[in-house]
Structure formats: C-alpha cells, structure tokens
Design goal:
Length: 227
Amino acid sequence: MDYDHLQERVQAQGLTVRGGFHPDASDGVPPLPDGRQAKTVVMLGGVGASFWAAFQSSSEATQQRDPLDAWTRRVTAELASDLGAVALFPFGGPPYLPFQRWAKRAEPVFQSPLGLLIHPDYGLWHSYRAALAFAEVIPLPERAVVVNPCDSCAEKPCLTSCPVGAFSKTGYDVPKCIGHLVKSEGTVCIEAACLARRACPVGRACAYPPEQARFHMSAFLRAHSQS
Ligand code: B12
C-alpha cells in the first residue's frame, strides 16, 4: 500500500486523505480486531465543499437521521474492506475517539481560540470524517514545517464576532450559542456556519457554501436542542 494509491482510492469516494501518523500506545488508537496495535493511522475528511457533491448525490442524503454519518460509514467501510484496514469514526460517542489529537499528529493543524483546529491554508473550513487503521507501516510524506496562523493574528476577530459572546478565552458557552441559534436572530449564524468561524481571515476561499453551512449548523442545532 502506498500513500498516493490510498489518496486516489479515497478521493474516488469523495473524501480526502488528511495526513497520517504512526501511533504509539499514548495515542489511544483502539487495538485492531486481532489485538495488535495499529502501525499506521490515516485521517479522512473534507476541505471546504470537497465531499459535499459526493454526499448530496448519495442515497443516504435524503434519509432523516444522521445522513452524513450514514454516508461516511458506508464509504469508509468500503474503503476499509478494499484496503485491508479498520474504519474508525469521530461520531457515535460518548466516549469519542480523540480525532483532533490525531489530526495534530497527522498534519500541521493547531488549536484555534474557538476550539476548532486551524489549518494554514484551509483556515477553519475543514473536518475529519473518519480514520483508517492499518496493521502495516505505510510510509508517509514528510510533514511540512508551518507556523500556527493564530500566533501572528493580533486582532483575533473570532473572539469578538459572536453576537452573544459565546467564545471567550475561558472556553465555548454552548447553551448561550444554542439559545441564540433557536431564535430568528440566529438565522444569520446558521447561514454563515457560525459568525465567529466566518470572521477568521485564514482560508476564506474554503468557507462552506450556504447549503452546506445550513446543513452542518442545523444538524448541530438539532443535536443540542434535544438534550
Ligand atoms: C463533543 C464535540 C463537540 C462539543 C465540544 C465540547 C467540548 N468542549 O469539547 C460541541 C457540541 C460544543 C461541538 C461543537 C462543534 N463542533 Co465539535 N466535536 C465534538 C466531538 C464529537 C468530540 C470531541 C471530544 O470530546 N473528543 C474527545 C477528546 C478526548 O478528543 P481530543 O481530540 O483529545 O479533544 C480535543 C477536543 O475536545 C478539543 N476541544 C476542546 N474544546 C473544544 C470546543 C470546541 C467547540 C471544539 C470544536 C473542540 C474542542 O480539544 C481537545 C484537545 O485537542 C469531535 C469529534 C471527535 N471525535 O473528536 C467534534 C469536532 C471537534 N467538532 C467539530 C466541529 C466542526 C464542530 C462545530 C463547528 C459543529 C458544526 N457546526 O459543524 C461546533 C463548533 C461551534 C460552532 N459554533 O460552530 C470538528 C472540528 C474540526 C476542526 N477543524 O477541528 C470535529 C473534529 C468533528 C469533525 N467531524 O471534524 N463539538
């Protein structure tokens, strides 16, 4: 198995390889079905609208419950079976697998003040949909050396753009955010896929188009207004 072949197979399913790493026991990667420790983990996800068309044309897109997760499960299970890997998912918890921690091992992304990981080119407009765990060591491309874009951002507009001040240096006030999203004034946050996220100057070309923004924000709102 080589990395380029893997990227081709993954892209054919509409997902993107988001780097990989060779885990050790401290990474919290679940053991493979035969009890061995995985030797390579490859992260799969999306950048901007990269998986949106593939998902939208799938049979899962019109199902009522968690359509994106259902699509992700199917395409990743197909990839895992073809490539001899085990599929792991960021959803389905709690407990949750530490996808953001793994993402930082896999590619140059950094914790932004919002909690989301920032990528120097894609900004906050990217996500992790699944990971593939392999028993073998797959050689990985050399990791690019880049700096955290938030370090040189003096203004930090992400921390001052939320209409209800849900983000602060002490964390993210989820009930405050949800309380606003359910009101008519919250529509603008839904259309923008979060005004705080939208305020970040990095990777704006990758910002989600309106339909995708509405989809993600509505799913987030549904999940949290029920609890
Ligand atoms: C629980 C959860 C949340 C909780 C956060 C609770 C909290 N304070 O941790 C809530 C519901 C608030 C949340 C919100 C959102 N989330 Co969320 N969330 C998760 C989930 C399912 C589990 C996180 C976790 O507990 N991991 C377990 C620990 C052990 O793993 P870890 O990697 O070591 O933990 C890291 C995170 O917890 C992170 N963290 C800490 N505080 C916060 C706060 C926020 C807001 C986020 C996003 C992360 C975060 O720091 C830890 C150290 O790196 C992950 C998927 C996953 N499996 O990781 C997605 C995930 C972190 N979320 C994600 C996203 C995109 C969002 C939303 C934008 C949803 C949306 N609209 O699409 C919002 C952000 C707010 C907004 N207004 O837009 C993405 C982030 C992608 C990225 N670029 O980093 C993830 C990775 C899912 C994915 N499929 O890609 N999320």
